[in-house]
Amino acid sequence: MGTASQAGTLNAKVSTPDGKPLAMAVVTAIPVGAAPAVAKPGSKAVMVQASKQFMPFVLPVQMGTTVEFPNRDPFRHQVYSFSPAKTFELKLYGSAESGTVTFDKEGVVPLGCNIHDNMLAYIYVVGTPYFAVTADAGENKIADLPAGRYTVNVWHPNQKAGQGQAGVVQIAASGEATVTVQMELKRNRGQRKPGAVDENEY
Asked: Counting C-beta atoms within 10 Å of the first and last residue's C-beta, which end of the chain has fewer, N or C?
């Protein structure tokens, strides 16, 4: 790792082909030639369940991170994924309770709830400590990158196959580099609003 005086910044701008900013895209910077990197012991992240939704919709974590799933609804949830990157199930648990899962393999992990079919979210597990999610303006920033060459990738849950390769960039000590990426999307795979059925009994 470089010191602050030896570190640079990667600025990313992600949009659709018609120029609309793309939020919730994960930008990763991978040192060229480096093996996948595991998170430091004790690394944690949080995926909240509230108002019959997962929050955030897209959660990037470094491989080896433990994610907590607190239930902040007044009824129970049962969280699961059938992803090859992490297959798991947190049995039915109630308000103010929580479950944890450690994500030890790179890949996309779609989440669901066995009780509330509308609930959907994604955990994106990466093998680098250098990543960020785009905001509504389609932009993000990865700071404190040691000087060197990085392969930059972009992922979004709605992207079409073959999308997401931004190329290789050179980060100079105390310098900045900017990448601009256009991603073609398929159908929207966002969260659906809760249905009219009263599910509070669960």
From this structure: N
**Mean model confidence pLDDT for the chain:** 91
Beta-carbon contacts of residue 18 (< 8 Å; ≥ 6 apart):
none
Domain co-membership, 112 together with 44: yes
- pTM over cut 0.85: yes
Tokens of 40: 């430091």
Q: Does residue 4 carry a pLDDT above 60?
A: no
User: What is the DSSP code (8-state) at residue 5?
Assistant: G
DSSP string, 22-78: --S-EEEEEETTPPP-PPPTT-EEE-EEETTEEESSEEEEETTEEEEEEB-SSS-EE
Give yes or no: residues 108 and 51 share one domain: yes
Query: In terms of Cα–Cα distance, which of 26, 68, 28, 21 is closest to 45?
Result: 68
Between CA 126 and CA 32 the distance in angstroms is 15
Read off the tokens for 89: 């199930």
CATH at 94: 2.60.40.420
Q: Give yes or no for residue 194 having a pLDDT over 60.
A: yes
**Rounded mean pLDDT, 35-50:** 97
